[in-house]
Design a protein that fits this description.
With about 290 residues, this protein is an alpha/beta fold. It has 8 helices and 14 strands. The strands form 3 sheets. Strands 4-1-9-10-11-12-13-14 form an 8-stranded mixed β-sheet, with helices on both faces. It has a 4-stranded mixed β-sheet with strand order 3-2-7-8. A two-stranded parallel ribbon has the order 5-6. Helix 7 (about 245-255) runs antiparallel to helix 8 (about 260-275).
């Protein structure tokens, strides 16, 4: 099993299940309520740990009561949080309204905690890991850190998640081996997902580029080679929270395990589909 580091944010997610979305100013009763760790890198790390990998997380954790609860849950999930700095302030919190009628969700996020700083990231011994995964959150910090990471490692792959377009983030792409694009990010590159992966594969030779497009499936390109994985027909969506994070975990798990890119794409799509059909992340690593 591989030693993997994911970097990004850790949040406390509060989820309310409702039969269907209420209208503005409605008052409805929730069918269920739950709290769990969240955040893109955190979700990806928790799933990778289920596959038996030794996973470390680098994310700022608050020193408040919710932060203590979050640390306990992350350790219980098998994550090494030794690279997580602690900071005064309130734990970042997402309030999620999840519709049982459609499986879709609305997220309201509040964050008052600082992001990982370049100084904190410079303390990490990058060479100790077999795979390094970064959320594309802080272009300024990443543009400083990623060249240092590339210099520190030998042949360890670096993956970069590109979920939301952020000014300056494109300058970071050259340092990653695997680029994981959301549909929204891809729209800024090409009119269609298949055009976006082809364009970025052309700009960055040798890189693996993926785009997920929900019910349209997913694409992967490397140099002049492009593959597509169609979604499973008739899939019933129960919970879409973290489906993209699950895809990323599935892709990393397959690639670090030695699977060729085209097979890794299929494995990642099918894992994300399993996530869509269940609430939460438990058991996704079971085979």
């Amino acid at each position: 099993m591989a030693r993997i580091l994911t970097t990004g944010i850790a949040t406390l997610d509060h989820t309310l299940d409702v039969e269907c979305y209420p209208c503005e100013d409605d008052e409805v009763r929730a069918l269920a309520s739950s709290s769990q760790p969240g955040g893109n890198a955190t979700n990806t790390a928790r799933i990778l740990a289920q596959f038996g990998h030794r996973v470390a997380l680098a994310a700022v954790l608050a020193e408040d009561r919710a932060g203590v609860w979050l640390r306990e849950r992350l350790v219980a999930a098998g994550l090494d949080i030794g690279a997580c700095p602690r900071s005064p302030g309130a734990t970042p919190t997402s309030h999620i309204l999840r519709s049982r009628a459609s499986g879709s969700r609305t997220i309201v996020h509040h964050r008052g905690l600082p992001e990982l700083s370049a100084a904190e990231l410079r303390r990490i011994a990058w060479e100790e890991y077999d795979w390094l995964h970064f959320e594309g959150r802080q272009p300024g910090t990443l543009s400083e850190i990623l060249p240092r990471v590339r210099e520190a490692v030998t042949d360890q792959p670096i993956s970069l998640e590109l979920e939301k377009p952020r000014p300056g983030l494109e300058a970071c792409l050259e340092w990653a081996d695997v680029l994981m694009l959301s549909r929204g990010w891809a729209e800024g590159v090409g009119a269609r997902p298949e055009e976006a992966v082809a364009e970025l594969a052309r700009r960055y030779p040798g890189r693996i580029v993926t785009v997920t497009a929900g019910a349209e499936g997913a694409w992967l390109a490397q140099d002049n080679h492009q593959v597509y994985c169609a979604p499973t027909p008739g899939l019933r969506v129960v919970d879409s929270v973290g489906a993209g994070d699950t895809f990323n975990a599935g892709l990393i798990n397959a690639l670090v395990s030695g699977e060729p890119p085209e097979q890794a794409l299929v494995a990642a799509v099918r894992l994300a589909e399993r996530k869509l059909q269940q609430a939460g992340f438990d058991g996704l690593g079971d085979v």
